[in-house]
Amino acid sequence: MNKENAHLYLPLVQALADGKTIQHKWLDNHWIDIDDHKIIYFHEPSHYYRIKPEPRTFKIYVNKYTHQIHNQNYGDPDWEQINVQEVLK
Question: By three-state DSSP, how is residue 63 classified?
Answer without folding.
Answer: strand
